[in-house]
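From the methods appendix. Each design record in this collection lists the discretized structure first, followed by the designed amino acid sequence. Records were kept in a plain field format so they could be parsed without special tools. The example shown here is representative of the layout used throughout.

RECORD:
C-ALPHA CELLS (266 positions):
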C-alpha cells in the first residue's frame, strides 16, 4: 500500500487522480536568494513548501478537496543582482509561467487556485488584475508573511522582520533547522540585519517608494534582527498560519462558483 499523501500532487499517482477530483489547487511561490549569512538560499522555497503541506493536510483532514502543487523555487531578484546566485526571473516571465500553470489547472477541471507567495519580491496582484475575465479560474493571492496583525506578530516575536530576521529564522529553525548555520558557541552565524537609512523623509515614512537595491540597503542581505529566533517561535507561527489558511481552504473547497462568487448572495 502506497504511503502517498493524497493532497500533494508530486506524491499521488494517476490511478488516484483518475478516481478522485480536486476543487482547490495551492501553488507555493518561492525564490532562490541569500538570507543573511546563516539561512539557506532556498529559505523561501522551504517556507512555501512546509506551509503549503501543513495547510493542505489540515484542510484535507476536514474534508477539503485540495491539492498542493510543487513549489516554484525561483522568483524576482532584480534588486539583489549584486549578490551571487540570486536567481532572477523577471516579473513578466514569472507571470507567463503562472498563467500557463493556471491554464493547465482549468483544463484539469480545477477553477479555484490559491497563489501561496513566500517571497517579498514577487508581486502577483497585477497578474490577478490582468487575468480577471480572461480565465475561468478564480485566483486568490496569499502572501503568508503578511497574515498576522501587529498584535498577533508581537505575541510571538520581539523584532520586526523584513528578510532573514527573527520570524524567518524561527520558521526555518522549526522546519529545516539543520540548515541554519551557527558558530561554535551556538550563536547564529549572522550579522544584526541592520538597514542603511534612506536620506529622504518621504522614503523613510513610506510616502514614496523605490525598489530597494539590497547591496546598498544591507551588509550581508539580511534585513531584520535574527538573534532572538527559536524553533518554538517558528512552530507557533506555523500553528497560527495553519489554523487560518486551512479554514479558508475548507470553505473554498465547499463553495459553489456562481454569478456572485466569492461574494455573499444577496
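DESIGN:
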Amino acid at each position: 500500500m502506497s504511503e502517498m499523501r493524497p493532497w500533494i500532487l508530486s506524491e499521488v499517482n494517476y490511478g488516484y487522480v483518475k478516481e478522485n477530483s480536486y476543487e482547490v489547487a495551492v501553488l507555493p511561490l518561492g525564490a532562490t536568494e541569500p538570507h543573511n549569512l546563516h539561512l539557506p538560499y532556498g529559505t523561501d522555497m522551504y517556507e512555501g513548501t512546509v506551509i503549503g503541506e501543513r495547510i493542505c493536510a489540515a484542510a484535507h483532514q476536514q474534508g477539503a478537496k485540495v491539492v498542493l502543487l510543487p513549489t516554484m523555487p525561483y522568483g524576482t531578484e532584480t534588486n539583489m543582482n549584486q549578490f551571487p546566485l540570486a536567481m532572477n526571473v523577471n516579473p513578466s516571465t514569472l507571470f507567463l509561467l503562472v498563467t500557463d500553470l493556471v491554464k493547465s489547472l482549468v483544463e484539469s477541471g480545477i477553477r479555484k487556485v490559491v497563489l501561496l507567495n513566500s517571497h517579498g519580491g514577487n508581486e502577483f496582484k497585477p497578474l490577478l488584475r490582468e487575468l480577471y475575465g480572461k480565465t475561468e479560474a478564480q485566483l486568490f493571492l496569499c502572501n503568508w508573511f503578511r497574515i498576522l496583525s501587529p498584535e498577533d506578530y508581537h505575541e510571538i516575536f520581539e523584532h520586526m522582520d523584513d528578510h532573514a530576521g527573527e520570524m524567518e529564522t524561527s520558521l526555518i529553525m522549526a522546519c529545516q533547522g539543520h540548515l541554519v548555520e551557527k558558530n561554535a558557541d551556538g550563536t547564529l552565524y549572522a550579522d544584526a540585519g541592520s538597514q542603511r537609512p534612506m536620506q529622504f523623509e518621504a522614503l523613510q515614512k513610506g510616502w514614496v517608494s523605490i525598489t530597494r537595491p539590497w547591496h546598498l540597503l544591507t551588509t550581508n542581505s539580511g534585513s531584520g534582527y535574527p538573534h532572538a529566533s527559536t524553533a518554538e517561535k517558528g512552530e507557533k507561527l506555523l500553528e497560527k498560519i495553519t489554523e487560518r489558511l486551512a479554514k479558508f481552504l475548507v470553505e473554498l473547497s465547499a463553495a459553489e462558483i456562481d454569478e456572485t462568487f466569492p461574494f455573499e448572495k444577496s
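APPENDIX NOTE: The chain is about 40% helix and 10% strand.
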